[in-house]
Amino acid sequence: MSTDQQARGIVVLGAGVMGTGITALALGFGLRVTLVDVDRAVLDRAAAAVRLQLRHARMMGALPEECSPGELVTALTAEAAARADAVIEAITEDAALKAKVLGEVSALMPAGVPLISNTSGIPIDELAEAVARPQDLLGTHFMNPTYLITMVEVVRGPRTGDAALAATLELLSRVRRQCVVVADSPGFVTSRLLHPMINDAARLVQEGTAGVADVDRLMEGCLGHPTGPLRTADLIGIDNLVDALDALHERTGDERSRPCALLREKVRAGDLGRKSGRGFYDYGEGIS
């Protein structure tokens, strides 16, 4: 990649939990990032959250010491997509909204630049109907926190071209992510396995079989889950989890993916996990 290309950097659409995390990761490896959102207050909070994540990542040795952080630019429009090396869409897990945003930004982009939808389970070929060049579209599923979890699920849609896939794998290699390329399918691999399991764990709490901490302790101690499913739900964001489960249930008909009443109650109450300060566990003031 030339010096000029390095200077162009990437565009991240959406300054929520995942957009902020992806931005922090890229900056930590020296890439220039334009972070786009429609709300200036959201962008201001995201910039502060990015700085915090970069500090945490450096303290934990998750970023290269020899690399100076890249430049962060925030914007209310996606005009920078016209001159980016890649565009990563990381807005809320809503298929219609993702399709609308992807369609709009693809019209700004030159041919051959990867357009990457970060999604936990919406089929890429479904989103490809909305974009100008389906061959440039593919998916990623980053895990939160992005700077600690080095594995990334990469989703190749039926119409994804070789060039877009190769360029995306090169970009992920630059930020030292390990990639597993999977075929397009609702939920792909990780969400198809993880999300119904979290739903089952919440249902056990709802039914009174065990408490939150006990479910997590058993999954950690007996089955080797690193954090427990309910603490993982808090990290994902319970609203994001419910949206992803709804999408999975709609597309597969799997009843294990129909969000249980306890999950829906927490969303209605605003108990969304770490980002709101309370989910299955309490976190004080929460994380932006």
TrEMBL record:
Name the record gives this protein: 3-hydroxyacyl-CoA dehydrogenase family protein
Keywords of the record: Membrane, Oxidoreductase, Transmembrane, Transmembrane helix
Positions of the 3-hydroxyacyl-CoA dehydrogenase NAD binding domain: 10-184
Transmembrane segments: 12-31
Species this chain originates from: Streptomyces fimbriatus
Pathway: Lipid metabolism; butanoate metabolism
Entry coiled-coil feature ranges: none
Family matches, as PANTHER family: 3-HYDROXYACYL-COA DEHYDROGENASE FAMILY PROTEIN, 3-HYDROXYBUTYRYL-COA DEHYDROGENASE
Pfam family, any one: 3HCDH
InterPro entries (alphabetical): 3-OHacyl-CoA_DH, 3-OHacyl-CoA_DH_NAD-bd, 3HC_DH_C, 6-PGluconate_DH-like_C_sf, 6PGD_dom2, NAD(P)-bd_dom_sf
Family: Belongs to the 3-hydroxyacyl-CoA dehydrogenase family.
